[in-house]
Design goal:
Layout: H1 27-39, E1 47-51, H2 57-64, E2 69-74, H3 77-94, E3 99-103, H4 106-112, E4 119-124, H5 132-142, E5 146-157, E6 169-177, E7 180-187
Parallel strand pairs: 1-2, 1-4, 2-3, 4-5
Antiparallel strand pairs: 5-7, 6-7
Helix pairs in contact: 2-3, 4-5
C-alpha cells in the first residue's frame, strides 16, 4: 500500500491497482528521494513531469510538498484510473487543478509536446524490461523540454546498467536502495556566447 508521505496531503493512502503490473516506488525510496530533492530546493513551485507514472505516486507527492503542477503520463488503463483518483485527491487537498493525467505512451507524448514547453523536475520509472535503447530514445526526446536548471530522476533495477545518456543530459549522481537504483541527471550548461567564459 502506497501513501503520500508529507505535505498538505501527507498520510493519504493512494489508490492502487490490484493485480496490476505497475511497480510503485516504495515509501522508503520515496522518502529518501524527496529528502534529497528538498535539500536541493527542487520541489517548491516546480513544474513536474511523471513519466511511466504507474499510480502517480511521485507526481502527487511533489504537489503535496509544494510543486506548482504535475503531469502524470501513463498508458495502462487501470493505472490511468488510479492516477485520476490520486490526482483528484491531491487537487482537492491543494484547492486547485495542480495534477493532470495523460493517457498516452511516453514516446508519443513527448513527440507531440509543443516546442517551448519545459519542466523543472522529471521522474521516470520505466518498466524494468524496457530496452536500454528505448530508454535512451525517450531521454533524447525529453531533453529539449527541460528547464535550464532541471533535474531528471530515473528509477531502475539495481542490476540494470547505467542509462546511456543522450547528448544534452549529464549524469551527476546515483543512489542504491536495495533492489532500486536512482540515477540523477541534469541538462548540459548552455554554451557560452562568443567572448564569454562559462563558470
Amino acid at each position: 500500500m502506497s501513501r503520500i508521505i508529507a505535505g498538505i496531503a501527507g498520510g493519504t493512502t493512494l489508490a492502487s491497482v490490484p493485480g496490476s503490473a505497475t511497480r510503485p516506488t516504495t515509501d522508503r525510496v520515496k522518502e529518501a528521494l524527496f529528502s534529497r530533492l528538498e535539500a536541493l530546493g527542487m520541489i517548491a513551485r516546480a513544474r513536474v513531469l511523471d513519466l511511466y507514472a504507474g499510480l502517480g505516486a511521485l507526481g502527487v507527492e511533489a504537489v503535496s510538498r509544494g510543486a506548482s503542477t504535475a503531469e502524470l503520463v501513463e498508458s495502462e488503463a487501470k493505472a490511468v484510473a488510479a492516477c485520476q483518483r490520486n490526482a483528484r485527491t491531491v487537487n482537492d487537498a491543494v484547492g486547485r487543478r495542480a495534477v493532470t493525467v495523460h493517457r498516452a505512451k511516453v514516446g508519443g507524448f513527448l513527440e507531440q509536446t509543443m516546442p517551448g514547453r519545459h519542466w523543472d523536475l522529471v521522474f521516470m520509472d520505466p518498466p524494468y524490461p524496457l530496452a536500454d535503447e528505448q530508454l535512451t530514445r525517450v531521454l533524447a526526446a525529453l531533453s529539449p523540454h527541460l528547464a535550464e536548471d532541471a533535474l531528471v530522476v530515473v528509477e531502475r533495477s539495481s542490476r540494470s546498467p547505467e542509462p546511456d545518456w543522450p547528448a544534452g543530459l549529464h549524469h551527476y549522481a546515483d543512489r542504491k536502495y536495495g533492489e532500486t537504483r536512482l540515477w540523477f541527471a541534469e541538462p548540459y550548461p548552455a554554451p557560452a556566447a562568443d567572448g564569454e567564459v562559462s563558470a
